[in-house]
Design goal:
Order of helices and strands: EHEHEHEHEHEEHEEEH
Function: Catalyzes the transfer of a formyl group from 10-formyltetrahydrofolate to 5-phospho-ribosyl-glycinamide (GAR), producing 5-phospho-ribosyl-N-formylglycinamide (FGAR) and tetrahydrofolate.
Number of strands: 10
Number of domains: 1
Structural class: alpha/beta
Oligomer: single chain
Family: Belongs to the GART family.
InterPro entries: Formyl_transf_N (IPR002376), Formyl_transf_N_sf (IPR036477), GART (IPR004607), GART_AS (IPR001555)
CATH class: Alpha Beta
CATH superfamily: Formyl transferase, N-terminal domain
Shape: globular
Mean pLDDT: 96
Keywords: Purine biosynthesis, Transferase
EC number: 2.1.2.2
Helix content: 25-40%
Distance between the termini: 22 Å
Strand order of the largest sheet: 3-2-1-4-5-6-7
CATH architecture: 3-Layer(aba) Sandwich
Largest sheet: 7 strands, mixed
């Protein structure tokens, strides 16, 4: 029996490097998903060009065309729902989403964030890591809730921080790990290993500590 493909939508505001990693994994046969939509709040986002090249439907909505944030979010997520999306992936989507809208997607939306959450939610994570003198940095994938970068963390990838590291070098090295971590998490969801049942479950057991790439492979 052939495995059915998980319908995935991605929201991104920037160049879309994590989207590119998902597309590459799909094209390599390593990710059993159908990418049904890539949406953005910026018509100029590189992620939309990537999606077009990969023959994925795209959508760009301008927040300035809506009277307030909830109105924009409701419109955007109505398009996501209409696409038949089963899993929504926020991959560099640089907006805080209205709590009432997020609540409708509980357990069906994940986000990748460049820090070892709960450390450094929000912006400038590499700078904050260096300023704190941390010896370790990383990326986290978590389920999306109304709290900014505050939903349950399901997986993390870690890198050491060296004495010569800068924001740019940390960002570059961490991005390579993000490009492994996000497809691994999406793959675990697509294969039914990672599920949401009021809490994150992996292979039938509650996720009590962030999963590693080794566990997800």
């Amino acid at each position: 029996m052939s495995q059915s493909l998980l319908k995935v939508a991605v929201l991104a505001s920037g160049r879309g490097s994590n989207l590119a990693a998902l597309v590459a994994a799909r094209d390599a046969g390593a990710l059993p998903v159908e990418m049904v939509l890539v949406g953005s709040d910026k018509a100029s986002a590189g992620a939309l060009r990537l999606a077009e090249a990969a023959h994925i439907p795209t959508l760009a909505l301008n927040p300035k065309d809506y009277p307030d944030r909830p109105s924009f979010d409701r419109a955007l997520f109505a398009h996501v729902a209409a696409s038949g999306t089963e899993l929504l992936v926020l991959a560099g989507f640089m907006r805080v989403i209205d709590a009432a809208v997020v609540a409708q997607w509980e357990g069906r939306a994940i986000n990748i964030h460049p820090s070892l959450l709960p450390k450094y939610p929000g912006l400038h994570t590499h700078r904050r890591c260096l300023e704190a003198g941390d010896t370790e940095h990383g990326a986290s994938v978590h389920y999306v809730t109304a709290e900014l970068d505050g939903g349950p963390v399901v997986a993390q990838a870690r890198i050491p921080v060296g004495p010569g590291d800068t924001e740019a070098s940390l960002a570059e090295r961490l991005l390579a790990e993000e490009h492994r971590l996000l497809p691994a998490v999406v793959g675990a969801i697509a294969r039914g290993r990672l599920r949401w049942n009021g809490e994150a479950m992996f292979d039938g057991r509650p996720v009590t500590a962030p999963l590693t790439l080794a566990q997800l492979s």
